[in-house]
Specification:
alpha/beta, about 40% helix, 16 strands, seven-stranded mixed beta sheet, about 425 residues, nine-stranded mixed beta sheet, globular, 15 helices
């Protein structure tokens, strides 16, 4: 439930944001999709910062308030955390109000007195929890480059739409109103996203593994050093040229997609593939997105606990399957906000994880469907463990873990699996130098 203060502040910040964009005319890169927005945003930032003064949306600032915060200034992590969903409602009232007043006054000042250091490029996330969200955000800032990452067969937040096709139509709003001369960057491998090429007046650039993509990903490999996964390597091909890409600390196809999307943006900014390759070395993945950490008992933990959808869950499980380890444990929580697809989607995850992990730890009421499906697919009953909450799962998981295990932790944010990650990790793994 929103506070009265937020209801008053939102239109003020949105108006200030529109005035700021009109005052400074930054080039706006807008990113939407059911999965991959944050990884793509960070990869684009790594590339564009080499050639332009750029600011990206921090954290999960993808609604009207969050977008306004990004447009109006740079704020500390502590300030952003204070006004995030992680801050309990009704707490830190005076500090919150002081921060909102700071944002408003600095926004007014920036509109009245032009700053020489305002970003030339803004990288913004356009979240779409419900119909109409994209258009509301576009009233604040219309993109010059619109990017759609992926929709998938069962998108997150689909419970608020009639089906995946309606989710895709909502995402299409981002590129439908692009002006001629703008760019639409689309994931060629996602059929629903690729079909959006007919919904824009902008120039279309596509990326993906499949034939027909303008910028093609090839030869993806998970790199291993001394039996420890350290990152990925792959090639990017564009108009007859190709370059090798090596990124540390990330795994699976999702990271390659993010890098390829960023490469498209680099090409739009007249960078060549070599310059893009060098820039991507500095790509830093977001916390809790397929992040490799050192675990207790000399184990390795893949922290992907930030969120989950059927598409990202499948990708994480496939990555777990492809990485080397004496024994693999999958800690999987509920996938929320998928409505009528809930049972089927969780059962599909169960049948998939049975072929990828040696032990399954299912967390949540919906994850019981994962456990039942995994058992039906051949996983032994004694290797399947179900718990109602993340806290319930922690000690049994600690007892299960053995030296050399590779543990994947993934579920929707509300399941609180970050508590599991904190309980079973030590410190980040030191990756080899690129």
């Amino acid at each position: 439930m929103e506070s009265t203060a937020v209801k008053i502040i939102r239109p003020v910040l949105m108006s200030l944001s529109r005035l700021t964009v009109a005052r400074y005319h930054p080039r706006v890169i807008g990113i939407t999709g059911s999965v991959g927005k944050t990884s793509t945003k960070r990869a684009v930032f790594a590339v564009v910062k080499k050639v332009r003064r750029v600011r990206m949306a921090e954290g999960n600032l993808n609604n009207e308030l969050g977008m306004s915060l990004t447009i109006l200034g740079d704020w500390s992590d502590e300030e952003l955390k204070m006004v995030s969903h992680d801050q309990p409602t009704g707490t830190a009232k005076f500090r919150k109000m002081a921060f909102w007043l700071k944002v408003i006054f600095s926004g007014v000042w920036r509109v009245m007195v032009k700053s020489k250091n305002y970003p030339e490029v803004l990288i913004l996330e356009y979240g779409a929890d419900r119909p109409g969200d994209i258009l509301r955000l576009m009233r604040v800032a219309r993109p010059d480059i619109g990017m759609v990452t992926a929709v998938g067969d069962v998108p997150v937040h689909v419970e608020f739409y009639a089906g995946p096709e309606d989710v895709a139509r909502e995402k299409a709003r981002l590129i439908e109103r692009l002006l001629p001369g703008s760019f639409a960057v689309l994931n060629h491998d996602d059929d629903m996203v690729d079909a959006l090429r007919d919904h824009t007046r902008g120039r279309v650039m596509t990326y993906g593994f499949n034939e027909g993509a303008d910028l093609r990903i090839g030869r993806l490999e998970n790199r291993v050093a001394e039996d420890i996964p350290v990152g990925i390597s792959f090639k990017l091909e564009y108009e007859g040229s190709s370059v090798p890409i090596r990124i540390d600390g990330v795994f699976g196809e999702a990271s390659a997609y993010a890098a390829a999307a960023a490469a498209c943006v680099g090409l739009i900014f007249d960078m060549n593939l070599v310059a893009v390759s060098e820039a991507l070395v500095e790509y830093v993945p977001a916390p809790s997105r397929m992040e490799l950490l050192s675990g207790i008992k000399r184990t390795l933990v893949i922290d992907d606990a930030y969120n989950a959808s059927p598409l990202s869950m499948r990708a994480a499980i496939d990555t777990l399957k492809g990485l080397p380890a004496p024994r693999k444990i999958a800690v999987l929580g509920d996938m929320l906000e998928i409505g009528k697809y809930t049972i089927e989607a969780h059962e599909n995850v169960g049948s998939r994880v049975a072929d990828a992990a040696d032990i399954l730890v299912a967390v949540g009421a919906r994850a019981k469907f994962i456990a039942e499906s995994a058992r039906a697919a051949g996983m032994k009953k004694e290797d399947i463990h179900s718990f109602e909450t993340a806290d319930d799962a922690i000690q049994p998981l600690v007892d299960l873990m053995k030296r050399g295990d590779l543990v994947l932790v993934k579920g929707s944010h509300a399941m609180g699996l970050d508590a599991v990650v904190r309980a079973i990790t030590a410190e980040p793994v030191a990756t080899e130098e690129a």
